[in-house]
């Protein structure tokens, strides 16, 4: 009742109830002073804030775009991958939610501890493999009887695809993903304890006419060292942070070796195309500059210096006499 606005009739009815004894004022005060209890499920511990979940979603939005580009190039067909949801749940609940037989790729991501699981729906995995082998991308669910060749093709494909994960995370941490296990039965895979909190990012995946889900399961222990970096304040501080002195020096050193064209113009002239076509060896072109006038020295296409021609060690040279003020606003004539 603390957040509500009462009408005048409700106020009158409340005062009337107190005055007639139907309602005790002390009981009202006691009710207001009592702490409201919120139910908390310790088996479903929430270890990530909404802010951190949003940033994890942003990272995997980028990963989904990279995967779309990667698979489109590999399969040469329509591919669309987008983030469907991002939730934090117990590991046991995640294992119960995926098919009993599916494609499970386990990755290590040093320097972070622990492992990340990428679960790929069999329909998507078989459609992908069929397309890579020259088929139309038809999907069959025969994950229980994977041959060694099919296992090798799938594991190599998803290992190559997961290399895009380091680019998605490069604004937070530099990781080096590597495939360490390939499994089809979730019951044989125990990465963390059943009650351990994991973040599950579900990706809606469309390959040709086949659709399914790709789930990225990240245990809390993997993200624990970098949790502070997943807050918005970290991004704000990073954007305001000035370039490191070493980076500035490195840029300056590269800039010193940049090459620019330097041209000393003796002058210019204008004549018709007909006269140009009649030019022959020995003809003389009259320029618009006197022989005793200084030259304009251009860096790129911009006038920068005034100089005079000469020779140095039997080579043609230009001696800089002055600096042009105003760049290309100078009147060359």
From TrEMBL:
Major localisation: other
NCBIfam families registered for this protein in UniProt: fliM_switch
Protein's UniProt keywords contain Thylakoid: no
Membrane topology: Peripheral membrane protein
Domain Flagellar motor switch protein FliN-like C-terminal: 254-324
Protein name: Flagellar motor switch protein FliM
Annotated keywords: Bacterial flagellum, Cell membrane, Cell projection, Chemotaxis, Cilium, Flagellar rotation, Flagellum, Membrane
Pfam families: FliM, FliMN_C
Gene3D superfamilies membership: CheC-like, SpoA-like
CDD domains: FliM
Homology family: Belongs to the FliM family.
UniProt cross-references to InterPro entries, sorted A to Z: CheC-like_sf, Flag_FliM, FliN-like_C, SpoA-like_sf
Location in or out of the cell: Bacterial flagellum basal body; Cell membrane
Species annotation: Cytobacillus eiseniae
Domain of life (superkingdom): Bacteria
């Amino acid at each position: 009742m603390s957040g509500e606005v009462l009408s005048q009739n409700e106020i009158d009815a409340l005062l009337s109830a107190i005055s007639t004894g139907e309602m005790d004022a002390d009981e009202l005060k006691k009710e207001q002073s009592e702490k409201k209890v919120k139910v908390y499920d310790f088996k479903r511990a929430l270890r990530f804030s909404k802010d951190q979940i949003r940033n994890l979603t942003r990272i995997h939005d980028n990963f989904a775009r990279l995967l779309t580009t990667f698979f489109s190039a590999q399969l040469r067909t329509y591919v669309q991958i987008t983030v469907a949801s991002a939730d934090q749940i117990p590991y046991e609940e995640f294992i119960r939610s995926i098919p009993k037989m599916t494609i499970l790729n386990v990755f290590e991501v040093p320097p972070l501890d622990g492992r990340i699981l990428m679960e790929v729906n069999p329909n998507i995995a078989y459609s992908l493999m069929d397309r890579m082998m020259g088929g139309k991308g038809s999907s069959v669910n025969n994950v229980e009887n994977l041959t060694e060749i099919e296992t090798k093709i799938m594991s190599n494909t998803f290992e190559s695809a997961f290399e895009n994960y380091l680019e998605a995370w490069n604004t937070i941490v530099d990781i080096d993903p590597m495939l360490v296990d390939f499994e089809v039965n979730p019951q044989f895979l125990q990465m963390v304890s059943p009650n351990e909190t994991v973040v599950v990012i579900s990706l809606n995946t469309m390959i040709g006419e086949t659709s399914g889900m790709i789930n990225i399961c990240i245990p809390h222990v993997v993200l624990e060292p970098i949790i502070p970096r997943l807050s918005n304040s970290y991004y704000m501080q990073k954007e305001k942070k000035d370039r490191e002195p070493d980076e500035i020096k490195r840029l300056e050193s590269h800039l010193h070796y940049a090459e620019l064209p330097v041209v000393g113009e003796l002058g210019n002239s204008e004549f018709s195309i007909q006269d140009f076509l009649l030019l022959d060896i020995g003809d003389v072109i009259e320029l618009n500059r006197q022989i005793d006038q200084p030259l304009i020295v251009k860096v790129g296409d911009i006038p920068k210096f005034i100089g005079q021609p000469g020779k140095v060690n039997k080579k043609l040279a230009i001696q800089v006499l002055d600096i042009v003020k105003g760049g290309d606003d100078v009147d060359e004539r």
